[in-house]
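Task card 7
Instruction: Convert sequence to structure tokens.
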Amino acid sequence: MRIYKVGGAVRDRLLGKPVTDIDWVVVGATTEEMLAKGFRPVGADFPVFLHPKSGEEYALARTERKSGRGYGGFTFHASPEVTLEEDLIRRDLTINAMAEDDQQNLTDPYHGQRDLEARLLRHVSPAFAEDPLRVLRVARFAARYAALGFTVAPETLELMRQLSESGELEALTPERSWKEISRALMEDQPQVFVEVLRACGALKVLMPEVDALFGVPQPPAHHPEIDTGAHTLSVLQQAAIHKQPLTVRWACLLHDLGKGLTPEEEWPRHIAHELKGLRLIKAVNERFKVPRDCQELAVLVGEYHTHGHRALELKPSTLLELLQSFDVYRRPQRFEEFIAACEMDARGRKGREDSSYPQADYLRGAATAARSVAVQPLLEKGFKGPELGEAIKRERLKALKAYKEAAST
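Output:
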């Protein structure tokens, strides 16, 4: 039995990055031997075990063979005869196909260290094209390591293009897709993830609504970058720079989908794109079975982001409707995330990345003013039921009128 550290732990150590998760592969062992040493089995698909003390995952060396469509369409074979090189060749990228023993002696049969130095994301073998999930994974790694100068090797991008055209991407489950998408959006340069998917044709398959934004012009006065797709990528980049949570980043990606529906004869204006885009945002949410908090914020940002930009001009009644739509009284955090998404949208314009966004504090102040209305005095006056609701609304509107007057003086 020989045990090796493999994959990301080896890659990140060589890059000088902190190692968080460690994967181990065991060569020359049987399931019975692992159980005898106190390892606990996990999963039924292939032999993976938890270390009796550390709880880390140890997998028996295995080979795999394509047996069906999609991410799960593989047959695995694990036995003591499977070599380390045979286990490593089934991995996606050369930089993930290195191993080291307890003395840090490197096993690198597919030249991963060379590609690390060349800053290349290159596939290990033609079998790369058998797993459609790898298209998303490579795009995610491109987003993670873009700051270090990594790019996708041309021949790997070509394989990703073939996978995108093969229909295999449609076999991915929503859960697996969302796991990769959500992780990619939380990388330091999530816009690179979208760029790579677009470069290999996968964006058109997975999110045609986002792909449709590229080449669609906007008014130069408001959007010096002009192209709606380029703007979307800039908004996403700003969200990463400002360390926004996943909910905000997802909303930033989808906020302008309605502009992809504007007829060419109406370009560069996009009248009512906010409402037109709602069905598209909901469709993307449903396609990937997106978590509810991400779904809800994306829909609300899509519908109301221009309200956010026009906050200083809104009538008190419109402002109240906006606050009611977000339920700021019970869910203040969601409104805060809306404000963040609006600010990222404003900053995601060429040359305006560092512009101030006074709307943010104005909206926060409006929410505070509306929340400051006390219900108890109204109850003491005898209001109840629907009448109480109307009375609260009147008092909140009064508070917002006072707030707007004070803010404008």
